[in-house]
C-alpha cells in the first residue's frame, strides 16, 4: 500500500485522516476504501458519531448471517474469541475464509473499525450488569493496583466490559467533589484544556490557527475546535478533584456562557422563538433518528450557540413537553 496515495484517497471521506497513524491507514485502505467508493457511487456519505437504530439492526443482521454461514454458535465467540482459547484457531480460520471484515460491515457507511467496536458493545453479555456493588469496587481497585491500566485483563477478571471497568475506575479512583465548582477547580480545568489544545495545535497545520501564538497566554483557535472531542481522562487527572464527565460538562457550560450569546438567545420571547425555530429545523431534516441530525449545522441556523447547547435544549424540550416520549419514534 502506498501510504501517501491511500491517505490522499481516504481524505475525501475522512476529513481528520491526517491525524490517523500509518498502520491504521494501511488497514483502512484494505478494509474501507473500496466500500467508501461504492457508497459514494450510491450517493451515500460516510458517517461518524452515534449509530442509528437502523444501523444497529443491520449490524445484528450481519452478525446473525455470519454465524449461520460459519456455524459458530454464538456472537460472543465470534466477537470475543480470546475468551474461548480451545476454539480460537477454528474461529480465526472461519473468519478468514468467509471474509469477516466485509460481511460484518455490509450496508453500513462507516469505517470498519467503528462497526466492529459497535458490534462488540452490542453483543458483549458483560456490558449490561447494572450498578457496581461495594465488593466489586474494592476488587476493581485491587486489580488496578496489580495490573495497572490493563483493562482487558481486569475486564476478564471481573466479567465486565473493558470500557465499563475503565470508566468506573476513573470515577472511583479519588475523592470526587460533587458540589459547586470552585474558582480554583475551574481555573485548573481551563489550564488543562488549554494545554491539550496547545499541544494539538503544534501537530496540526498552521491553517488551523487564526493567529499564531505570541506568548504563553495568547492562544487563538478556530471556534469549532473548542467543541471537538478532548482527552477527558487526561484532563480529569490534571484537575484532580473531578470525574472526567464532570469536567466535560463544565467545559461545555463555560463555552456556552463565555463564548456564545446563547444565554440571551433563550430568554423570554426570544426563548420561545428559538424553541419553535429548533422544532421547525429538526422537522425539515426529515431525520428518523437523533444521530442522523447534523447538530453543528443546526446550531448555526438557530443562532450563536454550540451543538452541545442545542442538543441539551432539545432534550429538555422533549422531556418536558412530549408525553410518553420514550415510546415515540424520533420523527
UniProtKB/TrEMBL annotation:
Say which domain of life the source belongs to: Eukaryota
Q: Which GO biological process entries does UniProt record here?
A: termination of RNA polymerase I transcription
Which SUPFAM superfamilies does the protein's record reference? Homeodomain-like
What GO terms fall under cellular component here? nucleolus
Molecular function (GO) terms for this protein are:
chromatin binding
SMART domains, per the entry:
SANT
Question: Where's the Myb-like domain?
Answer: 124-172, 173-255
UniProt-listed InterPro entries:
Homeodomain-like_sf, SANT/Myb, TTF1-like
Record Pfam families: Myb_DNA-bind_6
Q: What's the protein called, per UniProt? A: TTF1 factor
**Source organism (scientific name):** Copsychus sechellarum
Q: What is the lineage of its organism?
A: Eukaryota, Metazoa, Chordata, Craniata, Vertebrata
Amino acid at each position: 500500500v502506498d501510504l501517501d496515495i491511500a491517505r490522499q484517497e481516504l481524505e475525501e471521506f475522512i476529513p481528520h485522516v491526517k491525524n490517523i497513524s500509518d498502520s491504521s491507514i494501511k488497514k483502512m485502505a484494505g478494509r474501507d476504501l473500496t466500500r467508501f467508493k461504492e457508497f459514494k457511487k450510491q450517493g451515500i456519505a460516510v458517517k461518524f458519531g452515534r449509530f442509528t437504530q437502523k444501523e444497529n439492526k443491520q449490524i445484528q443482521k450481519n452478525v446473525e448471517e455470519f454465524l449461520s454461514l460459519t456455524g459458530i454458535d454464538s456472537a460472543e465467540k465470534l466477537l470475543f474469541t480470546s475468551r474461548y482459547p480451545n476454539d480460537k484457531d477454528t474461529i480465526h480460520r472461519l473468519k478468514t475464509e468467509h471474509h469477516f471484515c466485509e460481511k460484518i460491515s455490509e450496508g453500513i457507511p462507516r469505517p470498519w473499525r467503528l462497526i466492529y467496536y459497535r458490534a462488540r458493545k452490542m453483543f458483549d453479555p458483560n456490558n449490561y450488569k447494572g450498578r457496581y456493588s461495594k465488593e466489586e469496587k474494592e476488587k476493581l481497585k485491587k486489580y488496578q493496583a496489580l495490573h495497572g491500566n490493563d483493562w482487558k485483563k481486569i475486564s476478564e477478571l471481573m466479567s465486565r466490559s473493558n470500557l465499563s471497568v475503565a470508566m468506573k475506575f476513573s470515577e472511583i479512583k479519588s475523592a470526587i467533589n460533587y458540589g459547586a465548582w470552585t474558582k480554583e477547580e475551574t481555573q485548573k480545568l481551563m489550564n488543562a484544556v488549554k494545554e491539550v489544545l496547545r499541544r494539538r495545535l503544534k501537530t496540526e497545520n498552521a491553517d488551523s490557527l487564526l493567529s499564531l501564538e505570541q506568548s504563553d497566554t495568547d492562544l487563538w483557535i478556530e471556534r469549532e475546535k473548542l467543541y471537538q472531542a478532548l482527552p477527558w481522562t487526561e484532563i480529569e487527572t490534571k484537575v484532580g478533584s473531578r470525574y472526567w464527565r464532570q469536567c466535560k460538562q463544565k467545559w461545555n457550560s463555560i463555552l456556552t456562557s463565555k463564548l456564545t450569546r446563547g444565554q440571551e438567545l433563550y430568554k423570554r420571547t426570544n426563548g420561545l422563538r428559538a424553541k419553535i425555530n429548533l422544532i421547525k429545523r429538526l422537522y425539515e431534516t426529515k431525520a428518523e433518528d437523533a444521530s442522523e441530525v447534523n447538530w453543528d449545522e443546526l446550531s448555526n441556523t438557530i443562532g450563536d450557540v454550540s451543538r452541545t447547547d442545542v442538543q441539551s435544549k432539545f432534550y429538555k424540550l422533549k422531556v418536558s413537553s412530549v408525553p410518553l416520549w420514550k415510546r415515540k419514534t424520533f420523527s
